Every structure is written in C-alpha cells, then in structure tokens.
Amino acid sequence: MDVEEAFRTVGEFGPYQKQAVAIIVLTQVYMAFQSMLIVLIGSTPEYHVEQQQVPSSSQELVQRVVFTEDFDSIVTEWFLVKQQAYKVNLAGSLFFAGLLVGNIVFGPLSDRIGRRPVYLSGLFLEVVFGYVTAFAPSYEVFAASRLLVGLMNGGISVVCFVLVQEYVGKSYWAMTGTLTSLCFAIGIALFAALGYLIRPWRNLTTAANSFGVLFFLLSVTLPESPRWLYCQGQTDRAEQVLRHMAMRNGNTVTNLMLQRVVAAKVSSPTKRQTGLLQLVVHPVLRIRTVVLMYVWYSCSLVYYGLTLGAGDSSGSRYMNVAMYGLVEVPAYPLCMYFINKHWAGRRKSMSSFLCLSGSACFCTVLIPDNTGSVLSVTLLALLGKLMVSAAFNIAYIYTSELYPTVIRNAGLGVCSMSCRVGGIMAPFVPSMRVLHSSVPFTVFSLSGLSAGCLGLMLPETLNGPTAETLDELTGPTGSRVLENKVRNQHLNFLFM
C-alpha cells in the first residue's frame, strides 16, 4: 500500500495525531510572541529634550532626554531617540532578515536530513537566543540576538507547517494548515495581553521566551514524518512510525506494508538531486514555483501594507497589537468552508480572495478623500486585509499540496523567501502618497488582482492524489502512479 492507504488504515486523524498536531500548532503562539516582540519592547514613550549648561570653561550646552511616560523599553534603557531612533527599526529589520535566510536554509535542509531534527534543533536554538535577547548587556548584543532568533523562527515556521500536514491524512490538510495560521493570529493577541500584564521589557522578553521551553519539552516526544521517511526509501522506519500511530490510536494493524518501489526510486544518484535546483530545472515545478512566488509576494505586500495603512496608531498600544491579530481570525473559518467545496477548491478560493482584496483596495481609490469618508476607507482596508489573510492561509495549504513530499520543504522555503521580500517592501508603499493619495491603494489593488488571475494557472489539488516523488509529476510512469492512486481512493471510498 502507499502512504495514503496506510493513513486510512492507522487513522487519518486519530488521538495520537491530534496530540502531535496540537503541540506543533500551539508552538505557533510562541513564534508569534517572538515575531511581535519588538512592537512592544521597542515602543517609544513620550519624552522631551532639556538643554543643560555644563559648568566648564567652554560653557557647553548638553541635551538631556527626559521620558515623561512611565514605560520601560529598549528605547528608555539605551536612549534610542533622535539620531539613535533608527536602531529600533534596525533591530526589527534584522529579525525579518533572519526570517528570510531561515526560510531559504531550513527548507532544503529538512528535505535532506529530516523534519524532526531540524525542527527540534531550530526550536532549541531560538529559545537560547531568545534568552540572549532578554539579558543583552548592550544594544549590539540585542540586535545580533534578534537576527539569530529570526533565523530560527523563519526556518522552523516552514518545518512546523509541513509536519502538521505530514502527520495526518490528506483530507485533513486544510484543517491542520488553517489551525496553524489561526494559532499564530491568536498568539499575537495573547502577546498583547502578556505585555499589558508585564511591563518591564526584560521581564516581558523572559516570560514570552519561557513558553518556548515548554513547547520544546513537549516536542521531544514527536516522531519523524512517515511521509518523509517513505519518500527517502526508509520504508521500514516509516512502517514503524505508522504502526506506533496505529497503536496509540487504538487500531490493531497486522498487515501494514508499504510499497518497496520507492526505495529503488531514491537510490539512484539522479533521483537524489532534490532541493532548490529541482525547482528551476524541473519543467512542472519551474512554472509552479514562479507563479507561487509571485502569489506569496503579493499576499505579503498587501497584507503588511494594509496593516500599516489601516492600523490606528492612537490609543492603547496593547489594544492595537491585539486587534492586529484578532482581525485575521474570521478569515480562517472562511478558508475551511470554501477550500473543501468541489465548486470552489483551493485554486478558485485563493484567486477569489486575492481578487476581492484587490477590489476592496480599488474601491478605496473611488471614495473621495474627505473627513466624512474616513470610516468607509478604514472598513474597506480592513475588509481587504481580511480577504488577503484568507488567501495567505490558502496559499500555505495549496503550496504544500502542489509540491511532492521529497521537495515540499524546499518549495515552501522559496515561497516564504518571496513572502519576506514582500514584507520588507510593504512599509515603503505608503510613502508613495507624496505622488498621489491613491497610489498606495492602487499598488495593493494591482498586486492582489494580478496575483489572483495568475493563480488560476495552477492545477486544482482538492480530492486529488498527492505526489511523493518527482517521477509522479511527469512522464508515463508518473501518470500511471497517479492514476492508480486515484483508482485506489475511489475503491476505498466505495467500500468504506
């Protein structure tokens, strides 16, 4: 039997898989804490500058910064104001630069040496570097630690998403992928609550990072992905993991035996040439990768751009952070509803949400720029963010289904890389208002609409077979393998 048949035998989403998925999904809360950390600990309280005369022969005037707000952050500790204010943004940029590098490095690495060792080592190092952030004696150490935390955070975010997919049957991929994004959004809101309760920035950083210790200890018990073991030719180990899942699920399995043909496929040198190179040279993967990279780039550009444009900087900083996460929550039930409908599926749903986001941005251009229409512009901007959040979540699920298991992490890593590029560019779009007030929303509109149309070039994956190796994508052999998978799925459905 192949992997999908094996999962139907041991249980596609049994009690053991629910426990494993819950551990990884809840780890997203900790990762959200690290992603949003600089927003609170880098906040600049109200201050004024006093000029004092130094008693000396030169009668020098010295400027002294006086903070009038009772708030503790890296700004107040290292006086990062005026000419030094750029260092706060620099620390944030270093974190996102680490995310970019982590996406590139960790994806192919986990395809080569396995999901579990990369995930555990990355999470452990992120916790270690997180404590370096909390106890940094100087700004330079603080900035370096943020780069390293971002490197680990960006790397294991891809591996986490792949693991929750590969622990369960394909019919549950949409749900587990959505839960991952949902917990990250909830984590943003929980971080705002944690920041409200713990004000000193070092205490807040320590408390937020301590959650990582808990999740690391829970993650040590997780097994390796049976799908990865299978596609690597380690069939015996894959069967061992699947039998363990069956036992923990309460299922008695006596005849679980995977097809040994996979071992022969991966043993030749040509079949081992997986990684980033295959995304370029493989004819099917090359087209998919180009389209998906632009889709991820547009999702990130519109998402972060609208967040900056629609967010209200006034009021409580903690409430603003909480709303930043909670506004995404309604998007995920929409995803789970549409992507499993045969008349919508993954491709149409993702493209439709992107086009709706672009259309909402376009409508803001048509609204007159006056005080009476501010509320309408804000609502349309938030609607656009809601739609692009849904598209973003579908892009994760859809991308994991479009790439074979043997190269899935590499594909997600490259797409995440283009996502980070979009996030880096997003803050510069609002500055285009100097040309015309409608230019930023025009950029978001064109990005969403073009990505939505381009996404229609991709194949639908709903209820379709999942490719495990590159051979299953092209050629007569691959076609026969996929046809057999479809036939087996139909037979199993008839006799269930």
TrEMBL record:
What gene makes this protein? slc22a15
Q: Transmembrane: is it a keyword of this entry?
A: yes
User: Per the record, GO CC terms?
Assistant: membrane
Q: How does it sit in the membrane?
A: Multi-pass membrane protein
Name of the protein: Solute carrier family 22 member 15
Q: Which residues form the Major facilitator superfamily (MFS) profile domain?
A: 20-463
Q: What Pfam families does its record include?
A: Sugar_tr
Give the originating organism: Takifugu rubripes
Any one GO molecular-function label of the UniProt entry? transmembrane transporter activity
Note the superkingdom of the native organism.
Answer: Eukaryota
What PROSITE patterns does the record tag this protein with? MFS (PS50850)
Q: What keywords is this UniProt entry annotated with?
A: Membrane, Transmembrane, Transmembrane helix
TM spans (from-to) = 20-41, 88-106, 118-137, 143-164, 176-198, 287-306, 318-339, 351-368, 374-398
Quote the Gene3D superfamilies the UniProt record gives: MFS general substrate transporter like domains (1.20.1250.20)
